[in-house]
Write a structure and sequence with these properties.
about 525 residues, 5-stranded antiparallel beta sheet, 17 helices, globular, Ntn_hydrolases_N, Glutathione hydrolase-like YwrD proenzyme isoform X2, GGT-like_enzyme, GGT_lsub
Length: about 525
Amino acid sequence: MVFVFLCNSGILKKGGNAADAAVAVAAALNVTEPCSTGIGGDSFCLYFDARTGHVRGLNGSGRSPKAQTLELMQSRGYTKGSPTPPFHALNITVPGAAACWCDTIQLFGSKKLSLADILEPACDLASGGFPVAEVTAYAWAKWTKAMREVGRELGGDFLPNNQPPKHGQVVTNPGLAQTFQEISHQGKDGFYAGRIAEAIVEVIRENGGVMSLEDLRSHTSTEITPIFTDYKTVRLWEVPPNGQGMAALIALNILENFPIKGMNHNSADYLHLLVEAFKLSLADTTHFNADPAHVNVPLEGLLAKDYSQQRAQLIQMDRARASKEPGIPRGSETVYFSVVDGEGNACSFVNSNYMGFGTGLVPKCCGFSLHNRGAHFSMDANHANCIGPEKRPYQTIIPALLTEASSNRLLCSFGVMGAFMQPQGHVQVLLNMLEFGMNPQQALDAPRVFVQYDAASQQWQLSLETGVEERVAEELRRRGHAVHWPVAGHDRAQFGRGQVISIGAWWDPASPPSDPTHRVLWAGSDPRADGCAVGY
């Protein structure tokens, strides 16, 4: 995917900054990896302003249609025990990515390049064609098969000769090029009004959805105050609810109560502790995380250090936790990429369709599919994340930034995509660097773990990537974990795909103090994906 990230460096060479380049990469990835991301999905952005030292953010997720009430869903036969099928049109919330791209440029961009300048490389890719990368070709075929199993065809925009493209096959998408050109000339109105908006509403309503043109016209991004916690000498920044960034922060707060540096990396004790902390943080996050415009999310209590100390006491080092009970705090497919520019600004950005092509519904002559993020809504009337009109669902996509706790100096822009793996990936990559002294590439290369609660079996399931030792897997089984080991090949996608850009070698205690006049950027790109690190 080198040619995608050349879009990044090309924008920087023209005088654009990290925010400009991030939007250019988001658009280019929409072209080259439509089975993960696109303008028919949602985005989140964290931005470090080198001039002020402040971290700012944007919530670019969309809301449910005004007509989409719990009563409507129930009248169609959907309940807590029988929710909408994942690819149903009722799972389409207003796609927020287009507005987020425009607002990222407006709020954080250099003002030296126009929207047309920034989208031009992606337009060229879509109209001129690109060779499909290896991992992308596998995912393209996998999600095409999943769509066909439920009777849905993606169509010619994504299936040349009615088949998913092979690795190395050159593919074009003229419909998407036209969409980008309309947005280039009309801004947000080019997507949320006019031809594209009408095509979105038409395909949704033809397939049983209830979105209206007014739902699209009224959409706005939200400038957010990022949340953070201090772990030893560093400060981890995440997006607030409805994003699940608090899961990473809660886990770090819990882990701070244990002597991690004295444990061997990926030993049974270390992985047991890590997994138990994730269970507690995910139990809290899945219970409390929702749209803060509709419900109170007790963030202050959840992120309090004394609360994490109470939760840490629930961890038994010789026994796996079976419960998914949340605590009681006070106040109670995706792509990720990162850009750091020559001025020291950083943009941590994530963009997603959710499940592959999302719903697989493609607005006529537009070249993109519509996401299915609304599948994260609950059908439980008593749950904070219950479906309702004009409501944002629980969002798994989260970018991250790392600064020095004492000075707020930027240390790292990073992220790991992959649904509920994302906060777990953030914590594992961070600890690999801070506690175990790995550089960015080593931190991403290291085998990872992923724990998720299976509602059907009412059991936590623990996946261990190939590279974790067999004796460790057996010891974790002995402690009561439901272990899946070794997870290898394309199945490693469940452990997410990360990117890291670090400023200086802050993870290395032997490294000389940072010299602001000679800033050295270190980078890493996940071997589980087609990505790469590019500089100039």
